[in-house]
Amino acid sequence: MRREDRIKARSEVIGRVFNQISAASEGGGAPISEVINETLYHERERLRQRPSYGDLEADGAFYGQISKALPKASETARQDLLRRLLTRYFDEIAGHFNPRIFKATTRAIPVALSGLLNGLSPKRLITRPGEIPRIDQQLQIEGDVGHIARLHARGVVVYAPTHSSNLDSIIMGYALHASGLPPVSYGAGLNLFSNPLMGFFMSHLGAYTVDRLKTAPLYKAVLKGYATISMELGYDNLFFPGGTRSRSGVVEGQLKRGLLGATLRAYHNQLKAGSARPQVYVVPCTLNYPLVLEAATLIDDHLRRAAKARYIIVDDEFSRLRRWWDFSKGLFELDQRIRVVFGAPLDVFGDPINADGEALDPRGRIIDPARYLYRDGALVEDPARDAEYTRVLGERILSAWQRDTVILANHVAAFALFERLRAMQPQKDLYRFLRELSPALSLPIQEVEVAIDGLVERLKGRDVRLEPIVASGDGAAILRAALASLSTYHTRAVIARRGVRLHVNDANLLFYYRNRLDRYGLSEPLVRGARR
Amino acid sequence: MKITVLGGGNWGTTVALSVARAGHPVTLWVRRADQRDEINQARTNQRYLPDITLPAGLTATDDLGGAVEGAGLILFIIPSKAFRRVAQALGAHLSPEQLIIHGTKGFEPVTHLRMSQILEEETCARQLGVLSGPNIAWEMASGLPAGATVASRFPEVIRRARAALEHDQLQIYGNRDVVGVELAGALKNVVAIAAGMAEAMAVGQNAKALLITRGMAEITRLGVALGAAPGTFTGVAGVGDLIVTCASSRSRNFRVGDGLAKGEGLDEITARLGQTAEGINTARVVAELLRERQIRAPLLRTIHQVIEGAFSPEEGLRYLMSLEGSEDVEFVGGDF
Asked: Catalytic residue among B2, B81, B105, B188, which?
């Protein structure tokens, strides 16, 4: 965010959240002192957990001061305390921004991102950029980029991608740059800044910080306010509506609607202000990795969560440079592509958008979406109505993700193999099945190839995107590609061929890659077929 | 607020009558010009609501665009067979701020879609609701007291429905469960056919009560599998509607059951009714849904088989009585 915009955003966000709380308090809602107390409670709880990042001492002192001042404070003094909390949150979220560094890093983007994927130091990136392999060859961009560029001229664009890896924001950043689209403002988890390379680039490339350990509603209100105002100020945004990375590997089937609702809020505010460019366009995107950098940690976390041991991952493959090296080597050596799909744009109500940026009804007739916010001829506030509109937008993003996810050889092979093996032991619960799935259990390769053929046949009848090798429908070729891919990068080859049989070395990872197809309703008949 | 009712059948006319009785002018869209003229000039709708005089505040039109232009509330009361066709035509005239409440208890044949899903597919309207409940049109039109449910995820839709329809003889209850209210209203018509058969076969009140309660258990099971909240089936649009449909010889679906038990064919019954009995189509859709979802519902399946002529009503009843008893109320649980 530019310096002058940041100043404007600061006073707007603090003012809006402050007014919202004051109005609620006057209308019989929680008084200001209660909001402050609640915030202090959440902060104390956070500090008690001793997070591994942030200046805990300064935080402790700050919240201690507020806590001490609150009991004796007059109403005016309480309002001041609330403003101090809001200001602190805003400054933490907005971070620091230096236009000079921004310009330099923007120029370095193409090689910088390649370098990041190769685990190189920023110094080498800047001094010897010519020696670094370009990421372009590994990245394939699909979708109507021209349409999005035209929409950018008419309003603000918000990208809503699937979320598998911490690499996602880097890949999206590069895909936008390579497509000639402007950079975006986006919220990056504070833990990402613990990686020195990432921290450097993120804090200078439009990222604002999101601290997932901060659970106070006041913090979330400021965060949402920041995203909203950035759209109103004309900044394109990147949201991950699924919230955190997909733990199980599945294409997300549920969204966190808080931030997504900011798109409608921004649109409403723009209409109210009589803006000439009030439109906010939402572009669902999918990011498709043949291999996922953090797959092992993510699936482990998913299985632990299922066993009720929830935790926030603070240290994974993402913070270990060696793993980056192995990961990118795997990609480069086998010429595996990361595919970024820009889906069809929607308005904030989930309506499709035509080439001229106009919203369409389900039968393709042009409509004026602003009218969704009108009642008896006037623009009206109705939070219950807006929440429902956002729910529908969320559903349409989910359908777009399902449709635009590129189904890769690894997913198909993992799915077919897993389902065959699972059908052999239906009596075991899933966790026991995974625990006991050892290399001793194997299947004839030919049987897996036939299962892949059947699976591809069924996928072809659907509105889905298939990687070319999958679309070819040649089970043997698909399995060969998956075997080669799944034996690079991960500590152990996920699956291995011994003679004419296929063995599973890492059941959890097989499950992880299999899960990409979990929501496509493919399981049951395969299992039934195997039982027959 | 301009209020428009689409559909000049007996239910559509009754809904328009309720709006007029609540003290609002109302526009009633009908398909045929002769029906329009009869309503506007003779103040009657003889074919669908014989002997009822329509008040001056109710104006009929056959111009769909003019009827919905500027309407703050559209009540869409069109039989399931014509529902999509009219929704398609309506879509061309609609603005996104307009609210629609439909009052049709059925499924679309082939697609198995609920009526609100058709409106979503054909129009830009988002603020949708459904009107349902124990509402025999003739009773309401005659001025007898009644209550109905309006379900919508949008509180404004329920507020407007109350403002438009409530008067001293009609209460409106709100519900958020659109899926549940639509399914309860549609599915109960199949049970009503069973009740009509039982009545005509003189099997006694015990057997009739058994058929109705087992029918309720089965429609709740299917409804929940299709996304309804189980509690909705205990409400005005659930049990309320089931009681009236299964007890009243005026209910069209009840009369279908009655006709079948007396050995009449479906064509003959439909011709005699002169109006759509949604339960016949719904029974077919239900049979397919039960098959797709592998749900056990012997009563609903048997009614379908009787409608299709695979069983006589006596054979159907004998078959049902031959089944082993199972769990009474499955949400209570237990191993029986």
From this structure: B188
Please indicate if any CB of chain A lies within 8 Å of the CB of B155.
Answer: yes
Region B50-67: mean pLDDT is: 96
For residues A17 and A25, give the distance between their C-alpha atoms in angstroms, rounded to a whole number. Answer: 12
The predicted pLDDT at position B174 comes to 97
Q: Nearest by CB to B124, which of A361, A384, A391?
A: A361
The residue ranges of every structural domain in chain B are: 2-176, 180-322
Q: Is the pLDDT at A204 greater than 90, yes or no?
A: no
Q: Do B88 and A372 touch (CB under 8 A)?
A: no
The number of folded domains in chain A is: 4
User: Within this chain, do residues A494 and A411 fall inside the same structural domain, yes or no?
Assistant: yes
Q: Are residues A387 and A447 in the same domain?
A: no
Q: Do A129 and A179 share a domain, yes or no?
A: no
Which residues in chain A are contacts of B153 at CB distance < 8 A?
388, 391
**What are the start-end ranges of the H helices in chain B?**
10-21, 33-37, 64-68, 80-91, 115-122, 137-141, 155-165, 178-200, 205-225, 241-247, 252-261, 266-273, 278-293, 298-307, 313-322
Identify whether residues A228 and A321 lie together within a single domain.
yes
Can you tell me the ipTM of this complex?
Answer: 0.89
Instruction: Tell me if residue B188 is catalytic.
Output: yes
Of A351, A374, A384, the CB nearest to B154: A384
Answer positive or negative: Cα dihedral of A345, A351, A352, A357: negative
Give phi and psi for B301, each to the nearest 5: -65, -40
Inter-chain touch A367–B95, beta carbons under 8 Å: yes
Same domain, A109 and A181: no
Contact B97 A374 (CB under 8 A): yes
A440/A502 Cα distance (integer angstroms)? 10
Asked if residue A366 and residue A508 are part of one domain, the reply reads no
Q: How confident is the model at residue A243 (pLDDT cuts 50, 70, 90)?
A: confident
CATH number of the domain at B2-176, please? Answer: 3.40.50.720
* B155 contact residues in A (CB cutoff 8 A): 384-385
Instruction: Report CB contact under 8 Å: A388, B97.
Output: no
- Interface of A to B at Cβ within 8 Å reads 349, 351, 361-363, 365, 367-369, 371-376, 382, 384-385, 388-389, 391-392
Look up the domain containing A74 and give its range. Answer: 3-94
**Band (A194; pLDDT cuts 50, 70, 90):** low
Closest CA to A30 of A41, A16, A44, A20: A20
> Which chain A residue has its CA at the smallest distance from B1's CA?
A376
Q: Of A362, A387, A404, which residue sits at a domain end?
A: A404
pLDDT of A9 > 90? The answer is yes
Fold agreement between B2-176 and B180-322: no
Same domain? A294 vs A353 = yes
* First-to-final CA distance of chain B: 55
Cβ atoms of A192 and A312 within 8 Å: the answer is no
Q: Which chain B positions have a beta carbon within 8 Å of A368's beta carbon?
A: 95-96
DSSP structure string for A25-94: HHTTS--HHHHHHHHHHHHHHHHHT--SSS-HHHHHHHHHHHHHHTTT--HHHHHHHHHHHHHHHHHHHH
Cα–Cα dist B47/B127, whole Å = 33
At A432, is the secondary structure helix, strand, or coil?
A: helix
Is residue A120 over pLDDT 50? no
Q: How far is B1 from chain A (nearest CA, A)?
A: 8
DSSP state of A390: H
Structure tokens at A342: 């820009």
b (16+ CB within 10 A) / e for A193-207: bebebbbbbbbbbbb
Whether residues A260 and A113 share a domain: the answer is: no
**B180-322: what fold?**
N-(1-d-carboxylethyl)-l-norvaline Dehydrogenase; domain 2 (1.10.1040)
| A378: closest chain B residue by CA | B97
